[in-house]
Design brief:
Keywords: Dioxygenase, Oxidoreductase. It contains five helices and nine strands. The chain is α+β, with helices and mostly antiparallel strands. A five-stranded mixed sheet has the order 5-8-7-6-9. Strands 1-4-3-2 form a four-stranded mixed sheet, with helices on one face.
Length: 201
């Protein structure tokens, strides 16, 4: 559609959706430490830095995915306050997800604080130096329609949280059989609520 024929008065109905989520911006009081963490964590690089002010980090063809703004007077994140819970990054396969887990662990001693099969995704949660949580995940379903159907079903109603798992155990099973798809299947454990999730300190 050319710009001359675009109808800017079509204001009824659903709001026009964006095409993607572009980036996340975080305030910090320790810019250099946070910058190193996200470069290491994402296998990324600094696209631009203004010392003692801000840093822009990317890991793909986007000009930046994470931006950090330094404000020395800020205090550490309070998990008992309203706000963002976590940001999430998707990997294409469980092998890629778990290799990144091993690389972070071996090279930087970065450990996940929670590993869980939510049902729609298998996920590992981490914490950055400021206490923000980060999810790395792989989709369990081949398409969004099946994932949505699962989330609308009875099993997810009973347990919308998921089932914890050991990433090292999953690695052993994938090493023994590269075609093992048991990682997709979530065990039925009955009801589970958000109060069962222990947030990191």
């Amino acid at each position: 559609m050319s710009s001359s024929s675009f109808n800017f008065n079509a204001t009824n109905g659903k709001v026009t959706s964006p095409i993607k989520l572009a980036h996340i911006v975080l305030y910090t009081n320790q810019l250099d430490k946070m910058e190193k963490f996200y470069v290491d964590f994402l296998g990324g690089h600094v696209a631009h830095k203004a010392p003692h002010q801000m840093s822009f980090i990317t890991y793909d063809d986007e000009h930046h995915r994470i931006a950090l703004i330094e404000a020395p007077s800020l205090k550490r994140k309070d998990h008992h306050a309203c706000g963002l819970h976590h940001i999430a990054f998707t990997f294409p396969t469980p092998q890629a997800l778990l290799l990144a887990y091993r690389q972070r662990l071996v090279q930087y001693s970065i450990k996940p604080w929670w590993c869980v099969n939510h049902g729609p995704t298998v996920s590992l949660y981490y914490q950055d130096p400021d206490g923000n949580s980060i999810e790395t995940q792989v989709d369990c379903f081949e398409n969004n329609e099946d994932a949505t159907a699962f989330m609308e079903g009875e099993k997810f109603r009973i347990n919308p949280i998921g089932v914890d798992f050991d990433p090292e155990d999953m690695i052993k099973k994938l090493e023994a059989d590269a075609n093992w798809d048991g990682w997709r299947k979530r065990e039925d454990i009955g009801e589970r609520g958000i109060d069962s999730v222990l947030m990191p300190a």
